[in-house]
Amino acid sequence: MKKEDKMYLNSTNSIKVKKIRPGRGIGSGKGKTSGRGHKGQKSRRGVAIKSFEGGQMPLYRRLPKRGFNPIKKNNLATFNIENIQKLIDKKKIKNLEKIDLILFKKLKLVNKKIKKIKILGNGDLKDKVNLEVDFISKSAKEKLIKNGSTVKIKNI
Questions:
Q1: Which of 29, 47, 68, 77 could form a disulfide with 110 if both were Cys (CB 3.0 to 4.6 A apart)?
Q2: How much is the average pLDDT of 114-128?
Q3: 142 with 98, same domain?
Q4: d(C-alpha 80, C-alpha 151), whole Å
Q5: Is 135 helix (H, G, I), strand (E, B) or coil?
Q6: 134-150 as b/e: b if 16+ CB within 10 A
Q7: Which tens digit of pLDDT belongs to each residue from 9-18?
């Protein structure tokens, strides 16, 4: 079939291209095998080869593997001493108030999924505080004891 035969003018004088109808006889140009070649998986009905990109490296193999989701997650939040001092300076925490996980969640400083808190020893603390935490580093413990603060470590 020639190119001119496929196009025709409709009543509004605009050109319309005739739709190709595969499998409608040898004269249509897409008869017999309907442009699918001979035999093989791709010639069959209802076959789509998933994620096959014609020999190009598939998307799922081009992208890097990211992350690891452990079965037992350690939902632990860490806070430095300087962060606690900043909260006291901003008057979000009173210096003799018990500082624990519940208080941090109430102030929305940690996510609700967090289950444990660890205090680290970066920075200095001017005020005395009352801490109840799960873990504490050696340097943080020394600084807090030197300051006169009370530290209670929960049993795991």
A1: 77
A2: 91
A3: yes
A4: 14
A5: strand
A6: bebbeebbebbeeeebe
A7: 677 777 888 8
